[in-house]
Amino acid sequence: MPLTPKYKETEQLKKENARLKAALNESEFECQRLEIINSNLEAQLEESNRELEKNIEVLQSLKRDIENLVDNLKSSK
Fold first, then answer.
1. pLDDT value for 1
2. What is the pLDDT along the chain (77 residues), one digit of tens a residue?
3. How far apart are CA 9 and CA 15, in angstroms?
4. 1, 24, 69, 70: which one has the fewest Cβ atoms less than 10 Å from its Cβ?
5. Distance CA 75, CA 67 (A)
């Protein structure tokens, strides 16, 4: 029994549908992977910001100490 054009078209559409579903699954997997990476990067950024804030506080304290030392040296002359 020869294949009819309608049957060939149906088979081609089935193949295309399977290919698109596979591509969609790959895209969903990649999206999940990127969401995990993004979440990890956000956590790292938050930790970096906390460390930066601590470092800024230390530097500001050191600056005040230096200014006080300079003032003390000036007044002792």
1. 54
2. 566 888 899 999 999 999 999 999 999 999 999 999 999 999 999 999 999 999 999 999 999 999 999 999 999 87
3. 10
4. 1
5. 12
d(CA 69, CA 3): 96
- For the record, the structure tokens of 43 come out as 């956590």
Determine the length of the chain: 77
| pLDDT in the model for residue 2 | 64
The 3-class SS string of 12-73 reads HHHHHHHHHHHHHHHHHHHHHHHHHHHHHHHHHHHHHHHHHHHHHHHHHHHHHHHHHHHHHH
CB-count exposure of residue 41 (10 Å: 0-12, 13-18, 19+): exposed
Q: CA torsion, points 46, 49, 54, 60, in degrees to nearest 10?
A: -160
